[in-house]
Every structure is written in structure tokens, then in C-alpha cells.
DNA sequence: TTGTGTTTTATTGCCTCC
DNA sequence: GGAGGCAATAAAACACAA
């Protein structure tokens, strides 16, 4: 390995930097600035004790991490906005312009991409969560409506049965549930179904194979989320990603987003399960 | 002033691509 | 096999409440 050599950064910031023969070569041990290495490079110090002198540490040792100046950061930010990947030529140009080592520029971009990704994940989570919350409130409204309609059906059925029993035993015995009641119930089902499927992207809540409203009183929670604008959310993610992300990163990124959303949904499902699924 | 949490800069190890 | 990207992490710098 090309061992790091100390280079005094001639920039106005006076950073002391460890450099290899290229900006990417120095990837050695945690710090080559341990005592032995430093001694090797500073033969004018005759002893370890000398090197340990506080005065030396205060005044002579290479400076520790330095923050970039606001001007440097501004230029880097602008460059990042233009393009978040850094091709070698641009890296060299930026480094020259900023008085930094190319490696520092590369590191800054790497860290900046990581920060961008974190923020982006937060934004997408918020987006999905608000979609979910809005869907949940829609569902709550439909559920209440459902309850109301069911109780209406129930009271009408009762009334009808009372009426038929008062009509006398000489007549045909009524079916367990009168045809009228069933018709009424069917009507209600259709009404609810219409309401739920219209303008919702066609998610049939009372589907043919699924549990029916009157028989089971099962949940109306749809298989998909008709009110949830996940498509739009995904579009948003997609378009933003496309600006500066690869197809692969978008894919893995989306899977992360949806895993998070799914996890959240699962938690909600468990929390609300007592009335969702009972 | 000091303890603590957050942000920024830098390193390391692993992976993919050419 | 080298170059470069990313995730995880260390550590310095910074912010801020007590």
C-alpha cells in the first residue's frame, strides 16, 4: 500500500491531511498519525518524550478535523444540486476551486448523499402516513354508515315480522326472514356497494366471494386502499429519484419505503383489530 | 462551565462494475 | 484487480440547557 504521507494543505485553512498517491488510495489503518508513524516522519524530534510535550501538541501537531467554511459548503451544495454524483474531472475542479483535496470533496458528496437519502425517506414516510391517515378516516365514516344501515335493516325486519304475525295464523307462515326484508337488505347492500365502488378506483368492497354484509356483518375494509393515493406517492418518489438516482437504488429505496409503510399498517391493524376483523 | 445530544468530517470494510 | 459507491461507525466540532 502506498503509505500516507503528510501533506500540508496549502489552502487558506491550513489543514494537515493524510494523502496517498491518489485521493482514494489512503484507506489504511484508522490513523497513521500514531506515535511511531509520526516519529518516523519528524526526525527532528529525538525522543518520544519530546513529542509528547504539550507545547508540541498545542502548536505543532496536525490540526484535527476542520469544518468547511460556509463558502465551501455553499459551493459544494450548489454542485450537489446540479448533480449528486461526482465524476473525477468535476471532483478535481471542485477541489482546486475550494482549496481542498479531491478526497475531501468525494467524502463530502458521499456524506451529502447519505443525508439526502435520510431526508428523502422521512419525506416519503410522511407522505405515506398522511395517505394512510386519510384512508383511515374515510374508512371510519363508511363503517359508521354501515352500522347505521344495518340497524335500519334490523328494525325494519322486526317491524315486518310483527306485522305479519298480527295478520293471523290462517295465512301462509312467513319465511324465517321475509322476502321483503331480504329485498330491503339486498337493496342496502347494493347502495353501500355503489357508494364504495364509485370513484374509488373500482375496489369492490362487497365482492362476490367475500363475506356479505347481511350474512356475516363482516368488515367493509377493502382489500386495497381506494382512498389512498399511494400511486401518487409512488409517482412522487419515482420522479424525485429519477432526478439523480439509478433504477436499482430506486427499487431498493421503494422497497424500504413500502416495508416501512407496511409495518405501520400492520401495527395499525393490530391496534384496530378488535373491530376490523371481529 | 460542563454534560449531553446533534451534526459534520473522515475511515473502514464490503460490494459492484468495468 | 482497481475505482468508486454505500453502510456503519468513530471522533471532532458544535449547540444548548442546567
TrEMBL record:
Keyword Coiled coil part of the UniProt annotation: yes
Coiled-coil regions, chain positions: 132-166
DNA-binding region, residues: 61-120
Disordered as annotated region, ranges: 193-254
Residue stretches making up the Homeobox domain: 59-119
InterPro entries (alphabetical): HD, HDZip_class_I_plant, Homeobox_CS, Homeodomain-like_sf, HTH_motif, Leu_zip_homeo
Subcellular location: Nucleus
Alphabetized PROSITE patterns for the sequence: HOMEOBOX_1, HOMEOBOX_2
SUPFAM superfamilies assigned to the protein according to its UniProt record, in alphabetical order: Homeodomain-like
Superkingdom of source: Eukaryota
Keyword annotations from UniProtKB, A to Z: Coiled coil, DNA-binding, Homeobox, Nucleus, Transcription, Transcription regulation
One Pfam match: HALZ
BP terms from Gene Ontology: positive regulation of DNA-templated transcription
CDD domains: homeodomain (cd00086)
Molecular-function annotations in GO: DNA-binding transcription factor activity, RNA polymerase II-specific; identical protein binding; sequence-specific DNA binding
Gene Ontology cellular-component terms listed: nucleus
PANTHER family in the record: HOMEOBOX-LEUCINE ZIPPER PROTEIN, HOMEOBOX-LEUCINE ZIPPER PROTEIN HAT5
Role summary: Transcription factor.
Family, similarity comment: Belongs to the HD-ZIP homeobox family. Class I subfamily.
Protein name: Homeobox-leucine zipper protein
Native organism: Aristolochia fimbriata (White veined hardy Dutchman's pipe vine)
Amino acid at each position: 500500500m502506498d503509505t500516507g504521507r503528510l501533506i500540508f494543505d496549502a489552502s487558506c485553512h491550513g489543514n494537515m491531511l493524510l494523502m496517498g498517491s491518489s485521493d482514494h488510495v489512503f484507506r489504511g489503518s484508522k490513523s497513521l498519525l500514531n506515535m511511531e508513524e509520526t516519529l518516523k516522519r519528524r526526525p527532528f524530534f529525538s525522543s518520544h518524550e519530546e513529542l509528547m510535550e504539550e507545547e508540541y501538541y498545542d502548536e505543532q501537531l496536525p490540526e484535527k478535523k476542520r469544518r468547511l467554511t460556509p463558502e465551501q459548503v455553499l459551493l459544494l451544495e450548489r454542485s450537489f444540486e446540479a448533480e449528486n454524483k461526482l465524476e473525477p474531472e468535476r471532483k478535481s475542479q471542485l477541489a482546486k476551486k475550494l482549496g481542498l483535496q479531491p478526497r475531501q470533496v468525494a467524502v463530502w458528496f458521499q456524506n451529502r448523499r447519505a443525508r439526502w437519502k435520510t431526508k428523502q425517506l422521512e419525506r416519503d414516510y410522511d407522505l405515506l402516513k398522511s395517505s394512510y391517515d386519510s384512508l383511515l378516516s374515510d374508512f371510519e365514516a363508511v363503517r359508521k354508515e354501515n352500522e347505521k344501515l344495518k340497524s335500519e335493516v334490523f328494525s325494519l325486519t322486526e317491524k315486518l315480522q310483527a306485522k305479519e304475525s298480527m295478520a293471523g295464523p290462517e295465512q301462509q307462515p312467513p319465511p324465517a326472514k321475509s322476502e321483503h326484508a331480504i329485498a330491503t337488505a339486498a337493496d342496502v347492500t347494493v347502495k353501500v356497494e355503489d357508494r364504495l365502488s364509485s370513484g374509488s378506483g373500482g375496489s369492490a368492497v362487497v365482492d362476490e366471494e367475500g363475506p356479505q354484509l347481511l350474512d356475516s356483518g363482516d368488515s367493509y375494509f377493502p382489500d386495497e386502499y381506494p382512498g389512498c393515493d399511494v400511486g401518487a406517492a409512488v409517482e412522487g418518489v419515482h420522479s424525485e429519484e429519477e432526478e439523480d438516482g439509478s433504477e436499482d437504488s430506486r427499487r431498493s429505496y421503494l422497497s424500504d419505503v413500502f416495508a416501512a409503510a407496511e409495518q405501520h399498517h400492520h401495527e395499525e391493524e393490530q391496534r384496530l383489530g378488535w373491530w376490523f376483523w371481529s
